[in-house]
Amino acid sequence: MYQGDGLPAVSFAFQISAELRRRLSRFDMLLDVRIVWPKLSESTSENKSREYLLHAAAGALVLLLPLLFLPSGPENISARTSGLGQTPPAASSTKVIPAPLPSTPAPAAKVFPPPSTLPPNALNVIVLDAAHGGTDPGARGTGGIRESEVVLQFATQIRRALESQGFQVVQTRLGDENPSFDDRSAMANAQRGAVFITLHISSTGLPGTARVYVNADLPRQTEANGLLPWDQAQAPFLDLSRKLGDTVQGLLAQRFKGSPSDSQTAEVRQLRTTAAPAIAVEISSVSVERREDLDRMAPGVADAIARGVVAFKPSYVVATPAAAPAAPTSPTGATR
Length: 336
Prior knowledge:
Strand content: 5-15%
Strand order of the largest sheet: 2-1-3-6-4-5
Structural class: alpha/beta
Low-confidence stretches: 23-34, 72-86, 106-118, 330-336
CATH topology of the largest domain: Aminopeptidase
Distance between the termini: 126 Å
Radius of gyration: 52 Å
Shape: elongated
Oligomer: single chain
CATH superfamily of the largest domain: Zn-dependent exopeptidases
Order of helices and strands: HHHHEHEHEEHEHEHH
């Protein structure tokens, strides 16, 4: 390399860097400029002194650049001047306590609705009884139709129709089981503001018709303690039962030709022990050749019952506590 050829300042910077790399510290480098500069000056001619001056300035700039980009702080200067291998300063023993997480608000307490504010004579519960069940299939047709199965399907559609009118529905059975007469009545007697509707399919009668029954007259008696005998619980409600029965029967007659226009009376075991307005709805009949003939009646029966209960609601009253029936002392009606 020839210095007199006017090479760029980078060439001199390279020479200076090579010379200074033999030094041990950055501070020595800064001092060595005084040593390197005379050596470079000796090899230059006087007529090119200005050019070399520029080259030296460029070299000095190269030396200063690392200092400009060296991270600040006394620990970095000490490491550069004292050499490697020194033990780093011990980490601070101060424990860093993390900031507490924001507390999760406690879940709001559940607010339960207040007890019913309905007046004591308000009708709001329908106890729906699908007759028979379990080991008692009820009436059976030649085509394999079983009363216990058909009435359970009817109960499902009637329930929907009643609930759409705002009533609460309680079913005495939801599957193929057979609660006793007393168990079914007890479910109705335990309700406040209720009526009882039991569903049946007849073994005879004009197919495609429907009839409503209410219990025959019962002598109204009370025991010495002022309570009604269990098997006469229906006595105080016969007038209301007839009003409910006539209302529902009139709507059924409009839908199913051949059906009577008024309810009928009969000795219905299930109604006798029910301390609430109670009716029995009977559909004809299991003698049909196809089950579909009965299934097609279900929507009309459901609508007539729901509309009949709505029309009866203003007439509903409940029994006084003195008229409540006594609990049965023997399992009457436990079997059919």
